[in-house]
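Per-record layout

source: Methylorubrum populi
name: Magnesium transport protein CorA
length: 334
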Amino acid sequence: MMSLHGANGAVEHDSVEGGASLPDHALWIDLNDPTAEEAAQVERKTGIRIPSRAALSEVESSSRLRRNRDGLSLSTPMVTFDRSDFTLKPLGFLLTPDHLVTVRFHDMRAIQAVRKRVEERDGDGSTSTRMFLLVVEELVDNLADLLEEMSGDLDSLSTRIFDFDAGARPGARKGDNTAPKRRDLALRRLLRSVGRHGKSLAKVRASLLGLGRITAFTKSECGQILTEGDEPRFDTLAQDIASLDEFETRLSETVQFLLDATLGLINIEQNNAFRVLTVVSVVGVPPTLVASIYGMNFKHMPELDWVYGYPYGLALIVISAIAPLLYFRKRGWL
């Protein structure tokens, strides 16, 4: 799909099938998953080749930041901003003195916001460079909002992790065989949640890195077409991206801290299980020893003909089992 925008808003254009050229006052050409016909029409108008999705997805810096005969060819991975389908997809910019072409493959709130700002005259889009600045500024704002949302999510996740025992199922009795299963499931969910946030932050980091490189490269290569007021906007963008990068680094450190805390909880649960097994094995040793001694069939055993020998043996087995339990309870193991 193709949409055209001038300095004052949307520009009407003829269908691709008609073969008509694009209007001259179309300053910004936005291509959303363009067809071959749409790409060819834009190429005829601007004289620049529209890169394919595969070309925009290349990871080499020489492929993402290029100066060609007619202008700049820029690309970066960009998050989809959809938390239900949080992925990276390529975003391309083709910048010439007369046109800005954006090539994308998913709907983006930033693009819609820039369109609205241009139509409402809430932003200067009088040149291709200034239109480019509007798009990048809106992308940076969206990434900032996304990081703020993630920061709130991590605060909630931190509360869930460190209040894990306080949030246990009310009324669960000691020894209830469903409690360990519930705790195991809760810990699995916490671990998956920490992992999802870590993956999301890695994708945001890739987007910020790409925008930072694009901004610096464009400023250095477009000095001759920058007008008064453009260069300070590039500097402000660079500062914003740097501050967001620092904020993302702190969030990544928080994710690592929460991961360590979650793994610590899992280790505690495992230690509790091993402790129970250790107590059970120790408690079972003295009764087994007593039973083994009095189970020997020697002829001259003092208690063999004793009337109270059998009750004595049973009592000794019970006492030898209860004594370790009382000891472990006193030491706080139970």
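summary: The helical segments are 36-46, 53-56, 61-64, 109-119, 128-162, 179-221, 230-294, 309-330. The CA atoms of residues 134 and 257 lie 37 Å apart.
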